[in-house]
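call fold(seq) -> tokens
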Amino acid sequence: MIMNAKANLLIVDDHAELLEFIADDLNEDYHITTSTNGNEALNLLASEYFDLIISDVMMPEMDGYELCQKIKEDIAYAHIPVILLTAKNSIESKIQGLEYGADAYIEKPFSPAFLKAQIVSLLKNRTKVKEFFIKNPMYQIQQIGQNQSDQDFLLKIDEIIMEHLDDPQFNVDRMADILCMSRPTLYRKINLVSSLSPNELINLTRLRKAAELLSLRQYKVYEISNLLGYSSATHFSRNFQKQFGLSPTEFQDAQSK
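ret:
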């Protein structure tokens, strides 16, 4: 079962027949964009949004390793899963692909069914932890990340939100300015990495901090509400219960048992 039937895939290969074959095979389940070299693929990334990239390794101008490296080193694109396709089947070449940040490495000739399974798995892994995260207030946000790049990005986002917890005016625009990213780019990246919108992530971070403070039992509910920038204790309590299924007091009692 395809997890995201309308995900946008970018396929990069200088071999016209193979490019057409892969595109035709995946076209029914995904939106497909094709490119014949790495430089062209990077230009497409600057103007279009992709959920996953499939690239051949051996290409002129810029090979798949270099393309993968450039993608993974750019904060705006590093969250995008990359599948590398190659005729090289040595252990060394596989290690090289992983060192450049590839999320999967598939040898040619490959089974179309296996490629589809890899795509589904990578897309599914982007969303499967959301439900657990939003229902478990003590779960650390960076653990959502599927790779080191994702984890570093989420940790940076977490630090920025934590620095502005007491500011009720803090929003996505302020976060984008701090990161020197456009609002749409930041929105897409946070959504892909965490399966949350930026506003959801800000709210969840506040509530997660609230859970931490509640567990310490050093503050009253209204004090925590003020510390975290909520307009009232009632507003804070309502948000907390809606998110975690327990009122702040009930959560605090549960932690002491």
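The first helix runs from residue 16 to 26.
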